[in-house]
Amino acid sequence: MLTYPNIDPVAIALGPLKIRWYGISYVAGILGAWWLLSRRGAGLKPAWTPEQVGDLVFYCALGLLVGGRLGEVLFYNPGYYFSEPLAILRIWEGGMSFHGGLIGGLTGAWLFSRHAGRGFFEVSDFLAPVVPVGLFFGRIANFINGELWGTATDVPWAMIFPEPRAGGVPRHPSQLYEAALEGLLLFGILWWYSSRPRPAMAVTGLFFILYGAARIGVEFVREPDAHIGYLAGGWVTLGQTLSLPMIILGMIMMVVAHRAKAPDR
Hints:
- The chain is mainly alpha-helical.
- The protein has one domain (10-260).
- It has nine helices and two strands, in the order E-E-H-H-H-H-H-H-H-H-H.
- Strands 1-2 form a two-stranded antiparallel ribbon.
């Protein structure tokens, strides 16, 4: 068994002002994506100007934050938030849904595409390879917070998380599994694939497939939210239920894209 590092979730405390690793992870993800998009965008035809990249990041970051919070409210804990509506605004306490953030980010990409006069899938294919950067930092922040832990296990790399609800038993560090799969591996594949000639919409479709597969796989060793538990007779989680349509949609997009045989670059 490995020792959980027990890092303070508060990175910097200046009197009443507390800057948490969770918030830093969002800033790091957004800035990292911005830098990568700026590097790649300058070499594409038509090229992306720094102003366009900045606008795209703004639209998508705003959609991510709004959609992620609304997804948490509507998908994961509507009863609590509807009884405590002011809690919806307390985003510093955590509570962001990836699937809600994805919908919000895609909405931001769509609004930007209309504003910039670029095709939606041109924008989403450009954006998709850098989404794993934010996912990586977000999962690392989940690990630092000691939240979203895995199921009980006796594997040599299991950890005991300090949160009392974790039960004081060794568990899978599922946050690190997700950081590796949804972050590092997904980034490497998508960055490589998007640098090669391929049909429009294919990068977005591949992202949906790979993220959905990674999330469904890790959910088998990730403890479901206590207030939700398992669905469909006790073996499917909400995360898996929300991720399966992503895989199906991604496959449809890939088939349509390759049948069209219209190369993006």
